[in-house]
Amino acid sequence: MPTSTGGARLSDLRFADPQHEPGWGHVVVPAGGSSELPVDLRPVAVEVAGAGRLHDLGEWVAATWTTSLLVLDRGVVVHEWYADEVGRETLFLGASMTKSVLAHLVGRAVGEGALALSDAVTALVPELRGTGYDGTTVHDLLTMTSGTDWVEDHRDPRGPASRLLAAFADGGDSRALLHGVGPAVVPGTRFAYSTADSQVLDWVRERATGRSYATEVARLWRDLGCTSDAVVAVDGSGAALAGGGLAASARDWARVALLAVDGRAVDGRRLLDAAWAEDAARPPYPFLAPGRLPSSITTHAGFGRHWWPLDPSGGRVTADGSRGQLAAADRHTGAVVVKTSLWPYDDFLVDRQARDLSYLGIHALLDLLDPARTPD
């Protein structure tokens, strides 16, 4: 399997690189196919207005610490670029893009009748009775409106998010930490970004289906025809870091984004219900619409079912991982942009500007592939 890792490194996020860092367990997800994506490279020229100036493609790539950039037009690779020392065989840590893969797995479980959005969390995971997840549903977890007292701050080494990740670094039991999450507000009334919600969501999905995250990703990889192995970080008990521990090639991240268009794989096979793909891309509450999330997260996207709508109708949607991991799709044209990055994280203002500029560039690239769009 490929052994190099680019983009966001787990160690840089106070995680660990599951392939290189001692003490980090991981499971290999085997490649699911041998047919590469078709390629028809052509010049790509964009002008990105952001951060107080205009950027051409090269300037935007540099200004956002890009490590790979892949552009697909209806399943065909039309642009592919990698930074020095990484390439097509590199496994790029998706960080929280891993959550959007989890959404695909949940969508399949729902479509297959193993799970329902209305299912109570504690009906499937009774170990969480008496915690903040008592009284929440699958839908609450998918939309990160569980109402728990979780605080997602990876810059705080003593905070719950850092302690959760430490369970993966030292071979601990990450699920035991979820017992300490308490209630804060009524579920369904407030958005709070929460890797704990994702971890509980995967626990619920696993109980409903009897299959682990890694097992289901392997099935997805097979059905998508992914051509490279991937890796999933696991803790000492074998539970996956379903909220941030999947590393895959840029081309395979593109296949993940393509599935968000209409629930079909590159070869046209339906893997998700069309209605699921539609609903996953739409904000279910007004406060989840683009521009309505806390500004510390972004003013350029909203939140759906573990995917980030880039417009109110969900016509464009992206997976989003810390430090600039993005796999975006235009659901009208089928265009996809994958961008991995490695920008500084400790300075929240740098982090915010790089994310904002990245979103603007993603839109500019998707605009190029929209024949119905008239130039501004």
UniProtKB/TrEMBL annotation:
Q: Which SUPFAM superfamilies does this one have?
A: beta-lactamase/transpeptidase-like (SSF56601)
Entry's Pfam families?
Beta-lactamase
InterPro entries with a match to the protein in the record: Beta-lactam-related, Beta-lactam/transpept-like, Diverse_Enzym_Activities
Provide the alphabetized UniProt keywords. Answer: Hydrolase
Care to name a GO molecular-function term for this sequence?
hydrolase activity
Beta-lactamase-related domain location is 68-353
Please verify whether the record's keywords include Transferase: no
Check the record and name the PANTHER family matching this protein: BETA-LACTAMASE-RELATED (PTHR43283), BETA-LACTAMASE-RELATED DOMAIN-CONTAINING PROTEIN (PTHR43283:SF7)
Q: What is this protein called?
A: Serine hydrolase
Question: Which organism does this record belong to?
Answer: Nocardioides silvaticus
The record lists the lineage as: Bacteria, Bacillati, Actinomycetota, Actinomycetes, Propionibacteriales
